[in-house]
Design a protein that fits this description.
mainly beta; 11 strands; seven-stranded mixed β-sheet; four-stranded antiparallel β-sheet; 121 residues; single chain; 0% helix
Amino acid sequence: VQLVESGGGLVQAGGSLRLSCAASGFTLSTYGMSWYRQAPGKERELVATISSADGSTNYLDSVKGRFTISRDNAKNTMYLQMNSLKPEDTAVYYCNARRKRLWPPKEYDYWGQGTQVTVSS
């Protein structure tokens, strides 16, 4: 089981990046998928989620209207399109896959290694 992020880099304020999270060893569409980020000296925060049930999405208030989470089930890959980037978006971005099995009870929780996003002013 593996999650591999890519697409991070250095971009000027106002620019765009698209992060990818490729899953292997499990079917991404059956998991609740999320993007988190962690800036230096700060706690990890939830940025966006996409539901396994109906594909509904949720966003951190500060990224609403600028970021879009999506998934391509055929490619077993999740994305985060980031537009109008700001210096405060600078962080390591992580993808997460989570699912609960009811019986016997077990929680599946997988993380990628992270990809650095740096936005210069």
